[in-house]
Specification:
Length: about 110
Amino acid sequence: MRQFHPGELKNYLEAGNAPLLLDVREPWEFDICRIDGSRLVPMRQIPQAAEQLDPEQEIVVICHHGIRSFQVCRYLATELGFSNLVNLAGGMAAWARDVDPQMPTY
């Protein structure tokens, strides 16, 4: 599993890369703030939703501070064999702080 800091992810996306942005927060968190184009699948739903994900696709996993996303990455890699995972280090809190200071926070 790789890690991107928010600025690295911003540059990666701006360079034309198109990973799946998988947000594993709760719906109320997603309603407050999100990275455009991200797909919400709360952490508790990952075991069922993983069947619909491509284990070879590049997936950037996102949460509030990077802890839940790290756990989801580890689960997808070790339990289900996903091979192209990226954790957003610092999560949405760091994204708002470092990339988009106008983004609402909680």
